[in-house]
């Protein structure tokens, strides 16, 4: 997980900002699936 995303997630959890947590979580899953797709397509 990129450090900037980790920092933003920690800040969102600290402030109990559910909207921000949900948005960042969606971003992480989107990023992760894109990276997995690109790594499998290179094989």
Write up this protein.
The chain starts with a helix and ends with a helix. The protein has 2 helices and no strands. With 43 residues, it is mostly helical. The model has no long low-confidence stretch (mean pLDDT 90). The longest helix is centred in the last third of the chain and has 24 residues. This is Cortex morphogenetic protein CmpA. Pfam families: spore_CmpA.
Strand proportion:
under 5%
Helix proportion:
over 70%
Report the mean per-residue pLDDT as an integer. 90
Question: What's the helix count?
Answer: 2
Question: For the CA atoms, what is the radius of gyration?
Answer: 13 Å
Summarize the structure.
This protein is mainly alpha-helical. The chain has helices at 3-15, 18-41.
Which descriptors would you attach to this protein?
43 residues; mainly alpha
Give the SSE layout:
Layout: H1 3-15, H2 18-41
Helix pairs in contact: 1-2
């Amino acid at each position: 997980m990129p450090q900037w995303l980790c920092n933003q997630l920690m800040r969102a959890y600290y402030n109990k900002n559910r909207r921000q947590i949900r948005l960042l979580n969606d971003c992480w899953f989107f990023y992760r699936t894109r990276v997995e797709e690109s790594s499998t397509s290179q094989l």
